[in-house]
Design a protein that fits this description.
Length: about 425
């Protein structure tokens, strides 16, 4: 059955729509943190639909909220009408945002959320100049591809914005990697100022930044870096957009939003993924002065629809009621300590926060990336019943991001499977 579905997939879907594993799997059911494929194999899911199934699978409170809306017979209206679930979720997100006068706009994905944020910022500042971080990823649409600083995901050089890239997000391979935190931040701030002075006309619209770079391999800068950047941005009137698509909703453990580790309140935050626990939803929360500054008509056909916003609200309340942020901090610490203490010459760096962990694999004795090792570890982990992700500029970083409802025993099992798989891959390579 899997072979037949794979052949059909290749026949009608684009070649660039990549699949994991030498023998791709079809996930047909799930419960808690486990999923089962079409062949009856069950796995502990440590990638969660790319950080999207943040609560896990088959959660009654979320399913019930979706069923209640389905039972009304109304799956969709559009933002041309009042939508109670949209308003209620927007009120909750505004309350949690920490912004002074927040307003919320819902989209269908993180890509669309970032596109909207860029549109707002460039309109507000009347400039198409944007600052972004090297090794970043912000989506697959026209403007978001343009501000993606990772060649593996940049499909075109054509762009509606003029982008200048700065150092800071990816420390492991930075020319400043051996610096102390304070000196690293100072060097990156100097770079930011030089980039503004030498590669822009000065009237830059915004900087967009991920507090932890997701697709970039969970690259984690020192706390305070973006706050130090913000001091320079303020001198030029440049807006700051925090891309919280992967870092939002408490996944980093320490904070509800990733940007809070940097001691600064941004002008806007974009979000998606974990909010809907699998439902298609994204959006942004921004200061009213920025959000309202559009001089043209605009709507969203599907953004804010009652199915997605009703289910997302249930997911958000579940997350808060069960202190999943605290759980992410506790079990993330357990996983980080276990991985950092594992003796393997393949491991070049273990980084991240909470349940957002990257393991960069390198050739023993240096920093040369070994993407084949990452691919092999993924296969070995799958054979042992664990699904993980990968990323990074060179495809050599293992990405761990399980549902935030993870239990201590599941974390222990995953750590054992992963370290065994890394050790076996080291012996084989």
């Amino acid at each position: 059955m899997s072979d037949s579905l794979l052949a059909r997939h290749k026949a009608v879907l684009p070649d660039w729509l990549s699949l994991y594993y030498q023998e791709p799997i079809e996930i047909v059911s799930g419960s808690g943190r486990h999923v089962t494929d079409a062949d009856g194999n069950t796995y502990l899911d440590f990638f969660a639909g790319i950080l999207t199934n943040a609560i896990g699978y088959d959660i009654d409170e979320i399913s019930d909220a979706i069923r209640r809306q389905v039972d009304t017979g109304v799956l969709h209206t559009s933002t041309l009408y009042l939508i109670r679930q949209q308003v209620e979720l927007a009120e909750r997100i505004a309350e949690l945002s920490g912004l002074r006068e927040p307003k919320v706009f819902f989209t269908n994905s993180g890509t669309e959320a970032n596109e909207t944020a860029l549109m707002l910022a460039t309109q507000k500042r009347r400039s198409n100049q944007v600052l972004a971080l090297r090794n970043s990823y912000h989506g697959r649409a026209f403007a978001t591809l343009a501000v993606t600083g990772n060649r593996g995901w940049s499909a075109t050089s054509l762009s509606p914005v003029k982008v200048s890239y700065v150092h800071g997000g990816y420390r492991y391979r930075s020319p400043f990697s051996e610096f102390s935190d304070a000196d690293y931040i100072a060097a990156c701030v100097d770079d930011l100022r030089e980039v503004i002075e030498t590669t822009t006309a000065g009237d830059v619209a915004c900087m967009i930044a991920e507090p932890i770079q997701g697709v970039g391999g969970f690259a984690t800068p020192p706390d305070g870096l973006l706050g130090a950047f913000a001091e320079v941005l303020d001198e030029y009137g440049i807006l700051l957009i925090s891309d919280e698509v992967q870092t939002g909703w408490g996944r980093t453990g320490e904070h509800f939003w990733g940007i809070q580790a940097h001691g600064v309140t941004p002008d806007a935050m974009t979000f998606a993924k974990g909010l809907g626990n699998g439902l298609a939803i994204g959006g942004l929360v921004a200061e009213a002065s920025l959000m309202d500054d559009i001089g043209a008509n605009s709507i969203s056909t599907f953004g804010g629809n009652p199915i997605s916003t009703g289910g997302a609200h249930a997911a958000l309340e579940y997350l808060l009621a069960h202190d999943l942020q605290g759980n992410a901090a506790k079990l993330g610490s357990q996983l980080l300590q276990g991985l950092r203490s594992h003796d393997s010459a393949l491991i070049g760096d273990v980084r991240g926060k909470g349940l957002m962990i990257g393991v960069e694999l390198v050739a023993p004795g240096g920093k040369n990336p070994v993407p084949e090792a990452a691919a092999r570890v993924m296969e070995l982990a799958k054979q042992r019943g664990l699904l993980i992700g990968k990323g990074g500029l060179h495809g050599n970083v293992l990405r761990l991001a399980p549902p935030m409802t993870l239990t201590e025993s599941e974390a222990t099992d995953a750590l054992r499977i992963l370290t065994d798989s890394i050790s076996q891959a080291e012996r084989e390579l």
